Amino acid sequence: MKVFSRRATESDCEVLELLEIEARTNFALFRGGLRLASDLKVVGENWFTQVADKKTIVFVGGTSQTVLGYLLARIGLSSLGKIATIEQVFVTRDARNMGIGDALVSSIIDWAKSQSFVALDALALPGDRETKNLFERSGLVARLIVATTDLSN
User: Fold this and answer.
1) What is the Cα 106 distance to its own chain's centre?
2) Residue 153, in any domain of the structure
């Protein structure tokens, strides 16, 4: 089965909304997931805005013509130059281990290099070994661990 990855378009917004719902339900499975879910704004019905926003890059991936996953990254600046941060990468459960995630990460790496970015960061939750493995296969390695405690109790 042939895997694809490409920039998202307006026609992908409906499936992006459905995939985001599924992705966000997975946050609760990992330590820190509920906090990340509250920190990352829900795109919901506003995927068209994200796809069109020059500060955001969205890729979709899948097989044949069916979109089965997505990657959302935010564009920013550091003292060294432009960076992109992958905030979300998700492939629906039944389509995992087909290479869709690898294609999505490869696409953003190629895109960032073509745009003269100096770095690509990515978020992964503790215990989410699948996502960590995906990033490591693509050459992304941990550079920072953020530790926290809930002081509201």
Assistant:
1) 12
2) no
146 within domain boundaries: no
- Domain total for the chain? 1
Of 120, 60, 119, nearest in space to 91 by CA: 60
pTM value is 0.92
Q: Is 50 part of a structural domain of the chain?
A: yes
What type of residue is 23? A
3-state secondary structure of 48: helix
What confidence tens digit (pLDDT) does each residue in 107-121 have? 999 999 999 999 999
Q: What angle do CA 145, 80, 122 make, to 5 degrees?
A: 35
Amino acid (1-letter code) at residue 61: G
Flag whether 63 is in a domain: yes
